[in-house]
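Recall from the previous chapter that SMILES is a line notation for molecules. Here it describes adenosine-5'-diphosphate.
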Amino acid sequence: MRNNFKIISIVNQKGGVGKTTTAINLGTALAAIDKKILLIDLDPQGNLSTGIGVTEKQRKISAYDLIIQDSSIHQTIQETRIPNLKIIPSNINLSGIEFELATDEDRTNKLNYKISDLKEGYDFVLIDCPPSLGILTVNSLVASDSVLVPLQCEFYALEGLAQLLRTIEKIKDNLNPNLFLEGVILTMFDSRNRLSDDVVADAREHLGKKVFDTIIPRNVRLSEAPSHGLPAIIYDQKCIGSVAYIDLAKELINRLGI
Ligand SMILES: Nc1ncnc2c1ncn2[C@@H]1O[C@H](COP(=O)(O)OP(=O)(O)O)[C@@H](O)[C@H]1O
Ligand SMILES: [Mg+2]
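With both inputs in hand, we obtain:
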């Protein structure tokens, strides 16, 4: 850890695997046990911002300003309705960033520079990445201590993982020597679907201890909550999805020994 807190990228270049749901609910579960959390929404789609209840109007200052403009990290952080949980929201302008940074020689280090101004006040910074391995994800990986990979319990789940792991290694070799895989989170597990069991077995065989014991089930409450602008953990604390994310937070804390 380069700071007093841990910076974790939530990455998978596939869309719809549970990155944003994990950022919101793991973040909220950690906040509920009195950890100080900063969520950064790096996806131009802004699903994390919406899911936390940040309106369009409140996104005038966003991760875009942080990466491209002179805005400091302190100027871009906003309060949320959730105690202990702050956010840097996304803005659709982020979608043009690949082009805007194309000729910038220092384009992979933008977020890293800004985050280094954050000296204290947090236990975890969780960065929700877009579904690609483009410049935003690279910025996130360069700025991070470690990576969490949500893996959907579906056919082809492990496909693409090798490329993601190679990208992590490349960043480690060239840009951020301390980066490592924190763990893989199995998401959207459906006990009625035998395929789900196969994915769990495959993942554990290939990735061993890197796979968290906690498995996130497919649970409709997790998908309903964002439309209310609330984490599932607040929308319905007792649903199986919320309970799983609370367990995941505990497992992460135990693994880190903090
Ligand atoms: N465990 C789950 N059970 C049911 N729906 C889920 C679960 N996790 C995510 N979803 C839903 O699936 C969709 C994709 O999830 P999301 O977290 O946005 O993925 P990503 O950020 O990787 O694109 C969203 O509509 C979300 O609400
Ligand atoms: Mg997302």
